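Protocol step 4 of 5: obtain the predicted structure for the target chain.
Materials: sequence only (see below). No template structures provided, no constraints applied. The aim of this step is simply to have a reference model before the mutagenesis design in step 5. Sequence pasted as it appears in the construct record:
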Amino acid sequence: MSDTKVKLEKVEEHRKKWLPGGDKTAIDKQHGRGKLTAWERIQRLFDPGTFHEIGLWTQAMKTGFDIDDRELPRDAVIAGYGKVNGRTVYSYAHDFTVLAGTQSMIQNSKVARAMEQAMEEGIPMVGMIDSGAIRIHDLFGRNGFKVPVRGSPVGGGGGFMYYPPLMSGVVPHISLMLGPCYAGSAYSPIMADFVIMRRNIAFMSVASPPILKAVTFRDVTEEEIGGALLHSTVTGSNDLLVESDEEAIDASKRLLSFLPSNWRDKPPVVNTGDDPNRADEHLLDLVPADVSQPYDMHKVIASIVDKGDFFELQALYAPSMIIGFGRLAGKTVGIVANNPAAGDGCLDVYTGDKQARFIRFCDCFNIPIITLVDSPGFLPSLEQEQHRDGLERNAAKPVFAICEATTPRITVYIRRCWGAARLVMGTERMGVDAVYTWPSADIRVEGYERAADALYKGELAAAEHPEELRRQYMQQVHQKYASAYHLAGIQGADDIIDPRRTRPILINTLERLSQKMEHWEKLGPGPARPWRKHSLIPL
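Step 4 output (structure tokens):
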């Protein structure tokens, strides 16, 4: 046998040994927690036989401590690329079976390199986080062992923090939180476009419970300060709550199916088998005529998109606002909708942030946005006005995002659009490309009472029975100025449409607007936009 063959056999022997990650005891412990190993996660994410690992042979840097004598395969992270549903995707996965997946300079350098390559090559990134935070040995390595790697000192975040902001808007970036994530290790994955967290297993916080106790003398649990449910319902930091590793990985694959590989690409077109001309009789009776009666906007969305398939995001956070992806004639669209079944569809400090971020993502990747409107606007509230997050600042975010966007935007008035809702949900004066209204639309720039008082102030002052006359004037104002006819009459809507034909009308309009996008790609946007470094959304 030749010397080369002998060496190759040795390479394959090492490869086979290091492939699973840690030793059997560590792997059994990982399985005992109901978690997959890093290698098993990679295998589930990628199409069989397509994954190519980068950096299998990577070794931890020497620190001068006893861990230098331990075998640490890959320095506790798998990185590489492969096919997900036939499309190339980069990924990294922390390996908790190797020194609890703790982050070292070498490990972070591997992750940063994968991000850099994904960005340069226009390929989406999926990160799978399961790490016991920064490796202390790296931080306190003895003199003579702190060697810089890729321009960053040992223990520093370096490119691990640098590349997520650079990738933003260039390629889709998804973080799967499948274990603990504390302090500095949480800053990078939270900068992804989407976060998927596993209930009762994933935790994300700046400080750990022991550190909080040392400072505040308070006992807290991981769930209280950084649990997946907390981030799904209270902080809005999590987009999707799942129950298992398998569910998280499968959800990321489904999410990727709606997204382009990069900002210059287009999302995959899927033959769903749903008739583009399909009309839905059910929509005629779905929305109550009484504006005080709620209904679930999810049912409207399900009737419009292909096969009723809607991928909702942040469903547990600010539920009066719905965001997510669907398809129309096989092409991806972003859906933004008020939900009268939750908080009467009211807008607040939380809906503004949720809506604006989603709109900006869709605009980054040229995904058309469909807005379905039924909201009484902002509910007057002292608590909201005094909110520490700033109601006005958060209310301005979606307005800013809509006006800044260049992707095709279509607004459909389903029922109510009262007060500031018209601005937050988008109008033709804000650059929305097409506006349609159902006959049931009730558009109120101002409340009837205040409008009647202002318009007929003299008549009411001179009336013998002002209250009765006031009611008559209020009814007149409603009939004359709040109807779909008035909106269309002042060019506030392009057409009053049959609710049953909402789907085919949207598909037809998007086909028209696709020409706009092709024109822009060749000649640049039509409306004058000044050159600038970047805009400053009211964060």
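Step 4 remarks: The CA atoms of residues 238 and 500 lie 35 Å apart. The first helix runs from residue 3 to 18.
Proceed to step 5.
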